[in-house]
Amino acid sequence: MHVTSRVMAALACGAMCLACETAPARVPAQPPPAPRTIEEWHEPPASLAPTEPEDEAPQALAEVVAPVSPEPARTIAPSGAHDGEYDSDEPLPVRRYVYRVRLAIPSALGDASDLATPGAELYIDTSAHRARARFVGQSWPVDVGSEVRVRGESAGVYVFDGLGGRPLEPGELGVWFEGGERRPGPGLSVRRDPTTPSGEVGAMVCVLLAEWAGDDRESVLRRCDGRAPLGFRVGLWRAERTADLAIEVPRRALRADELEPPAAIPHGSSRAFYEPASLARIESAIPRGEEIEPTDPEAPGEGLVLENESATRVIVTAQGVPVGWIGPHERGHFVGLRPGPIWVGALRPMGSIALRPRLVSVPARTVLRAPRVRPPRE
Q1: For residues 353 and 105, what is the distance between their CA atoms, to the nearest angstrom?
Q2: Are residues 148 and 288 located together in one domain of the fold?
Q3: 3-class secondary structure for 73-84?
């Protein structure tokens, strides 16, 4: 009995020793990785790091990747007058006015549609003698994010857009917005705010509107009565004030020269206001004996192409709906319109009609010819 117990104990010890010899060693836990720095987040992971391509790789890549045209260099021209008065980080109380803006299409360009007119916003920061306006939203006929800087004591403005920055003489802001020589159009109108006391801060909004419309500053200031208007109309653009905020910014945030420019923005030659799915909601025209423009052999496979041969930017309409804009001597392709007859027109950004409605059959290509130059009378 005692021998059996000793044998069993020996076997148990042997099993325990064997287990100790064969069990894998425990690996100590690794500490969590240290947080990545901002610089490291911008670096690609090692698995995505570029490797030396094989001999055939460049040729294979060229077959599937089209060459990309480089962006034009941004040129920032001097303003001609250094704004040293606003060259500090001193806190500055300002008013930020936000206007919701929409384009009112003349009935001559087509019947009204249930498709909502695309909207845009204008952000205007003002102090007693400075204003800075930003064009926000895809529905402006200028580069999205363009910025205008205004001084109260001197006429003219400084503009930043996708091409860079440059000073504009008095009355030239409307030319910049038009994209070329300005044509006569609807004038400026303002709707006063009777609840706000008159003051220089709100008056700077009116100074900006005077520059935009090409009107005399003093005349517009009298019409505004020294207040930021509740609403206004420049050309066919109608604005309603949606916000009036008291904020504080560094004084240099309202400087009106070329220094400390905003971030670069893309420059475009055309842009659609709607996604293709929205354009598909525009109903085709019902011809009542009108002649449809002959099909162009260069018409696209779908949608509408308009060639703008004029010297100004134009806003294209389809059935009275503004579908997008095209720069001077450029072409725009608007995809999503239903196949079939449709009335196409165009107007300049400040409101004058550039192309009276013509009936085309989508898919279509049509051309806005440059206006004829009449010879001078002898």
Answers
A1: 10
A2: no
A3: CCEECCCCCCCH
Are residues 133 and 123 in contact, defined by beta-carbon separation less than 8 angstroms? yes
Which residues, 6+ apart, have CB-to-CB distance to 302 below 8 Å?
335, 339, 362, 363
CB of 165 within 8 A of CB of 261?
A: yes
77 within some domain? no
Q: What is the secondary structure of 331-358 as a DSSP string?
A: EEEE--PPSEEEEEEEE-TTS-EEEEEE
Strand partners, 232: 190, 239
Please compute the mean of the pLDDT values over residues 333-352 and round it to a whole number. 95
**Contact (CB, 8 A) for 326 and 258:** no
Position 74 in a domain: no
Backbone angles phi, psi at 208, to 5 degrees: -60, -45
Is the preceding peptide bond at 170 cis, omega within 30 degrees of 0? no
Asked if the structure places residue 145 within a domain, the reply is yes
Give yes or no: residues 215 and 292 share one domain.
Answer: no
Strands ordered across the beta sheet of 314-318: 270-272, 321-326, 314-318, 340-347, 353-362
Last residue of some domain: 212, 229, 254?
A: 254
CATH number at residue 290: 2.60.40
The neighbour count for residue 336, using CB atoms within 10 Å, is 20
Six token digits for residue 342? 């449709």
Q: Is residue 20's pLDDT more than 80?
A: no
Confidence band of 190 (pLDDT split at 50, 70, 90): very high
Please indicate, yes or no, if residue 20 is contained in any of the structural domains. no
Containing domain of residue 316, as a range? 270-368
Radius of gyration of the chain (CA): 32
Comparing C-alpha atoms, which of 373, 315, 376, 312 is closest to residue 344? 315
Cβ neighbours for 53, distance < 8 A, ≥ 6 positions apart: 61
Q: Return contacts of 212-217, CB within 8 angstroms, 24+ apart.
A: 212/173, 212/174, 212/177, 212/188, 213/174, 213/187, 213/188, 214/171, 214/173, 214/174, 214/182, 215/187, 215/188, 217/155
Look at residue 175 in the predicted model and tell me its pLDDT: 95
